[in-house]
Amino acid sequence: MKITDTALAGVKLIEPKVFSDDRGWFMENWRHEHYLEAGIDAQFVQTNSSHSSQGVIRGLHFQHPASQGKLVWVSAGEVFDVAVDIRPDSPQFGQWVGAHLTATNHHQLWIPPGFAHGFQVLSQTATFHYQCTTPYRAEFDRAIAYNDPDIGVIWPQPPQGISSKDANAPMLSAIGQDQLPTCASS
């Protein structure tokens, strides 16, 4: 397994070992001891999957006060996955990083607590999976505008299929600091 730090401290790109032969392939999606060696000490309590059409953007989502760490990957298709540091006390506050996750490259992205997350589907359809360190709680569910100019995410395709929640999400600057995670609480 190869783990690469991204431009955002704590966010890691993971390239699992894939064992292929004439029958197909096999890989481990998660093995605590290997991730722990790379500094990812996560205990997952919920696993989610979504299936979306080309151009769809889901995000930028986060949970507060019960922040979630997420390990994400794609089992069918291709997405552009994004993490945004939304901790006001972080030197990287408001900065983002993106990675292409595909069913063929088998890459994963680790997004620690304290970051907003979103993705855009680049293939005709994509099936996306995420393991979460904290259960989903509707009362803590939050979103930031996917097109916030102060963050400046460069989505690879014109956005389509934006949910009303995401279309009406506030800009990061409109969210009170008490409504955002901090480095200490992440």
In short:
Helix content is 5%, strand content 40%. It is mainly beta. It has one domain: Jelly Rolls, CATH 2.60.120.
Keywords:
13 strands, single chain, five-stranded antiparallel sheet, 2 helices, six-stranded antiparallel sheet, mainly beta, Jelly Rolls, 186 residues, globular
Average of per-residue pLDDT values: 94
Please report the first level of CATH classification, the CATH class.
Mainly Beta
* CATH topology term: Jelly Rolls
Q: Tell me the number of strands.
A: 13
Bin the strand percentage: 35-45%
CATH architecture: Sandwich
The number of domains is 1
Distance, first to last CA: 26 Å
| Envelope shape | globular
Structural class of the helices, strands and pairings? mainly beta
Unreliable stretches: none
Q: Kindly report the spatial arrangement of strands forming the biggest sheet.
A: 1-2-10-7-12-5
Radius of gyration: 16 Å
CATH superfamily: Jelly Rolls
SSE string, helices as H and strands as E: EEEEHEEEEEEEEEH
Query: Which bin fits the share of residues in helices?
Result: under 10%
Major beta sheet, specifics? 6 strands, antiparallel
